[in-house]
Amino acid sequence: MDDYAYVNGKKLRKGFTTGTCATAATAAAISMILNQDIEEKVTVSTANGVEVTMDIKDPSFGELTASAAVEKDGGDDADATHGLLIYSTVTLLPDSNDIEIDGGEGVGRVTQKGLKCDVGMAAINPTPRAMIEKTARQLLGTNCGAKIIISVPGGEETAKLTYNSRLGIVGGISILGTTGIVNPMSEESWKASITIELTMLYNQGYRSVVLAPGNYGEDFATNVLGIPPHRIVNMSNFVGHVLKEVQRIGFTRVLMVGHMGKFVKVAGGIFSTHSKDSDARMEIIMANLALLGAPVELLEKVDQCITTDAAGTLIEEYHYEEVYQVLVDKMKFRSERLLRNRKPEVSIDVVTFGTEAGYLASTQTLEEIAEEWT
């Protein structure tokens, strides 16, 4: 395996998923039972077929039971689970050929429908579950079964830093991984988590969803608009990606709620709103103020603003608040146009606000929002 990836010109070290760690720990535990000897290292294949050798921590074994751990190494990725010990405790079942896989301490339990694991199951996703079972079967052959418990001390506390609570996974982290390798600074896992949350809502019967680009949007939607938290999905800066996922999954109604500082970019057709990718906030505001006939003096002052809130103070001073309605109408137009010519047709409405000013404008009236979304 190439141990490094290059992101924005930086050389960053790759890591391993919790699923690969659980698979390696399981292989070590089974090998210790079969060989009646301590394993210090073990070699396994990741889900994408790459062979990796991993150090074994805290090994112990008996005649039919053994336990081993592998330390989660997220490489140079911003990984909440980095450094956790992923344990596998294996008990052979000589009178059965079944392989039973479950979660113990620190591994979450699924409490809501719509995920890849059924309600009540340990949050061990299908790919790592399949890799654990495959590895166990290769070592045990076809005539012996095993009970395998994956546990993660400290997992319940770490789960507070992940998306699990939003997905109805309680009590710990998830055992994840589609390839077995963690690519550093990758946005793909974040996007995948959003897709999981959207899919869960869809499978629960919802065909409409509220999208917010961050905590500010979520808080405004909940505390000001009165929208139930379970209807809201945090799309981060991935506005275009998430809108396309919404359409692909099958939703037909969207309400986007966000701070003007993020959403004004959408009015200009910018759908990746992170500052590293784009910034045309003041230019978009100035252009639309100019179309409303705003004086050059106002435009020049807005051009010097660092934040949309600062621009908002000037807009209020010069009595050009109507620009907010123009902007939200363009946000709606741009977003719906992004999804044109694909099915299903998605109807999108927008609410935007400022830090100090609060509510600024929306494409639905607040009464209509209350009736449809709360």
What topology does this entry show?
Blueprint: E1 4-7, E2 10-13, E3 15-16, H1 18-35, E4 41-45, E5 51-55, E6 57-61, E7 65-71, E8 85-93, E9 99-103, E10 109-110, H2 126-140, E11 145-151, H3 155-158, E12 169-170, E13 181-182, H4 188-203, E14 208-212, H5 215-223, E15 232-234, H6 239-249, E16 253-259, H7 260-267, H8 281-291, H9 296-303, H10 308-317, H11 323-338, E17 347-354, E18 358-362, H12 366-373
Parallel strand pairs: 9-11, 14-15, 14-16, 16-17
Antiparallel strand pairs: 1-2, 3-13, 4-5, 6-7, 7-8, 8-11, 10-12, 17-18
Through-space gap between termini: 50 Å
* Number of beta-strand segments: 18
Radius of gyration: 25 Å
Strand fraction: 15-25%
Average of pLDDT: 90
Query: How much helical structure, as a percent, in the residues?
Result: 25-40%
Envelope shape: elongated
Specify the biggest β-sheet. 5 strands, mixed
- Structural class, please? alpha/beta
SS element count, helices: 12
Q: Identify low-pLDDT runs.
A: none
- Domain module tally: 2
Helix-strand topology string: EEEHEEEEEEEHEHEEHEHEHEHHHHHEEH
With strands numbered from the N-terminus, the spatial order across the biggest sheet is: 6-7-8-11-9
